Amino acid sequence: MRLRLPHLLSCGILFVLPFAGSVSAAAAPPAVARAGSPEAAYTVKPGDILSISVWKEPDLSGPAAPGGGPPGVLVRPDGMFSFPLAGQMDARGKTVQELQQMLTEKLRKYISDPVVTVSIQEIKGNKVYVIGQVNKPGDFVVNPKVDVMQALSMAGGTTPFAALGDIMILRRTDTGQQQALPFRYTDVVRGKNLDQNITLQAGDVVVVP
Question: Can you tell me the distance from the alpha carbon of 169 to that of 151, in angstroms, rounded to the nearest whole number?
Fold first, then answer.
């Protein structure tokens, strides 16, 4: 009898049928969420404001916000922030859950079983930029994400002089290299080549010549 391998299920788990004479099955690797996919967790960006508290430790919290608002911790342009007892913390590429775990480990040296809560109070660092032949060029805070067409809408749409077939998205990679991704507006509005309408990442620049 010939065995057939099962198909991948939609949940991303691979079930392996045991072969004759075998009593163990190989464990499937965990599914990894791609950047831009719904499963990908938001990572903290410079400019974001964090809310950090430690249970039963009222002195351990972010500085009071201007105007008497709730306390918050600003992530600096270098991706770092300061917190009492923990010192300088690197938030670059970290989720709030990862920062919460890092702070817990730091504070455990001074506090027995610290209970730390971290959340994003304001998303201000997740920005994209739209420049060129649009009605309202500038930078726009993305909460949490937008695609190219949505960004153009946020910029008030294109002007009559825009070269709609030559729009580019400039994106800088983790290694510092810059990419130029083409976007043909005329195709997308007709429902063609919709894969061009990508989800923008923080720092992307949409150029409308």
Answer: 11
Q: Do 111 and 140 fall into the same domain? A: no
Q: Which of 73, 25, 28, 68 is nearest to 47 (CA)?
A: 73
Tokens (6 digits) for 123: 């998303």
Pick from 28, 30, 52, 29: nearest CA to 39: 30
Residues 63 and 112 in one domain: yes
* 70 in the same domain as 107: yes
The parent domain of residue 97 ranges over: 49-122
**83-92 pLDDT tens trace:** 999 999 999 8
Measured in degrees and rounded to the nearest 5, phi and psi for residue 194 equal -70, -15
Record the pTM: 0.64
Asked if 63 and 83 touch (Cβ cutoff 8 Å), the reply is no
